[in-house]
Design brief:
Blueprint: E1 4-11, E2 14-22, H1 23-27, H2 29-39, E3 48-49, H3 51-56, H4 69-76, E4 80-81, H5 82-99, H6 110-129, E5 133-139
Parallel strand pairs: 3-5
Antiparallel strand pairs: 1-2, 1-5, 4-5
Helix pairs in contact: 2-5, 5-6
């Protein structure tokens, strides 16, 4: 079982999840974190929500009235504005493309990272267009 990132959009208390596994983004979180620091944008890991992982790794029950970890994340999750997410993702993509940043020691995951960032950007743009919020959930 791998740990991956999923993108989520929050609109009026409801979460829309893109269940496309973002394995390369999770795998290279530390490098993406360093790049966002250099680029002076929202830190990549600062929009990672661990609600799903927390419940999967514990015996904790969902709060009364909540049917899924997504319901919990909608209320108590880590979120940023769609606008902030778009800025961070566009800046990362542009920098990585312009500088041909390598991801990995033995195998370069460059193409996978770009593809997953671009998929994430589409979701962030949706969040921005509806004045919603965006995050990455850590899923295992």
């Amino acid at each position: 079982m791998s740990t991956v990132l999923w993108t989520n959009v929050l609109e009026k208390g409801k979460v829309k999840t893109d269940t496309s596994d973002k394995y390369a983004l999770y795998k290279h979180t530390k490098k993406l974190e360093k790049l966002t620091k250099i680029l002076n944008v929202t830190l990549f890991s600062s929009i990672h929500d661990f609600t799903d992982m927390k419940f999967n790794l514990s015996n904790e029950e969902l709060p009364e009235g909540m049917e899924s970890t997504t319901d919990v994340m909608a209320v108590n999750g880590i979120w940023v504005s769609g606008e902030e997410a778009v800025l961070m993702l566009e800046t990362l993509i542009q920098y990585i493309l312009e500088n041909k940043i390598k991801f990995g020691v033995f195998k370069n995951d460059y193409n996978e990272v770009i593809r997953e960032l671009e998929e994430s950007l589409k979701q962030a743009m949706l969040a921005k267009d509806i004045s919603g919020e965006f995050n990455f959930s850590v899923v295992m």
